[in-house]
């Protein structure tokens, strides 16, 4: 049912809108003037704030994705997923002597993974989430960090997990622990930090601070 001017019908939370062909689901919501996009961030597949459930007209199953990456299609139907209520897990890595063992205290649910693969299907970034969880269980934190490099923390994997595992929280923990306890400091980073601490960038830093100061009345005019 495309109309003559390259426009398509989309259905957002039960309401039908006519939008430009070639845009994304997020672009369609902006075009339709929906308030629901106000808290959505980057529009470029980086911030993870636009998780979406969508159904293509020719399919019976619902897919997950990022609204700023999924192209509109005539007859597509979708809803935004919104914030997921996460369990707050607090830890101080400098107080943990054995982070591989502490994983099971902080995230005991990880041992209940059923290897169902739903998290892998849900991930818009194509991450091997299930494999990463098992790497974490077996203490291969370096591999967890490598597998999760492109994670945008959209939370779609958490939403589909029937045993309450939050893979990206676990991946963040494993990556931090890998850095703090096993890999050691990156030489380039240490060199740059030392150079900052010794005042090498004082002039530039002051210029940045000046540029962020509120404008005086005279400058504002
Ligand atoms: S691993 Fe989970 S949180 Fe990260 S991008 Fe994939 S679905 Fe989103
Ligand atoms: S959805 Fe949950 S239970 Fe299934 S493989 Fe992923 S982490 Fe394991
Ligand atoms: S708006 Fe940031 S990932 Fe889609």
What's the short version?
By secondary structure, the protein is α+β, with helices and mostly antiparallel strands. The protein has ten helices and five strands; from the N terminus they run ββαβββααααααααα.
Task: Tell me about this structure.
This protein is an alpha+beta fold and 221 residues long. It folds into two domains: 7-80, Ubiquitin-like (UB roll), CATH 3.10.20.30; 93-183, no CATH class. It is built from ten helices and five strands. The protein has helices spanning 25-31, 99-106, 118-122, 129-137, 141-147, 156-160, 167-183, 187-197, 202-212, 217-220; strands spanning 7-12, 15-20, 51-55, 63-66, 76-80. A five-stranded mixed sheet has the order 2-1-5-3-4, with helices on one face. A hairpin with a 7-residue loop joins strand 3 (51-55) and strand 4. Helix 4 packs antiparallel against helix 5. The longest helix has 17 residues, at 167-183. It starts with 6 loop residues before the first strand and ends with a helix. FE2/S2 (inorganic) cluster binds next to loops. Residues 122-123, 125, 127, 129, 151-157, 167-168 line the site of one iron/sulfur cluster (SF4).
Protein traits:
single chain, 221 residues, alpha+beta, Ubiquitin-like (UB roll), 2 domains, 5-stranded mixed β-sheet, 38% helix, flat, binds iron/sulfur cluster, binds FE2/S2 (inorganic) cluster
Query: Which structural class matches the secondary elements?
Result: alpha+beta
Arithmetic mean of pLDDT: 93
What's the quaternary structure here?
A: single chain
Gyration radius from CA atoms, angstroms: 23 Å
Shape: flat
Small-molecule components bound? iron/sulfur cluster, FE2/S2 (inorganic) cluster
**How much beta, percentage-wise?**
5-15%
Write down how many β-strands occur, each being a DSSP E stretch of 2 or more residues: 5
H/E element order: EEHEEEHHHHHHHHH
The amount of helix comes to 25-40%
- Distinct helical segment count: 10
Low-confidence stretches: none
Overall number of domains: 2
Side by side, the strands of the main sheet go: 2-1-5-3-4
Distance between the termini: 53 Å
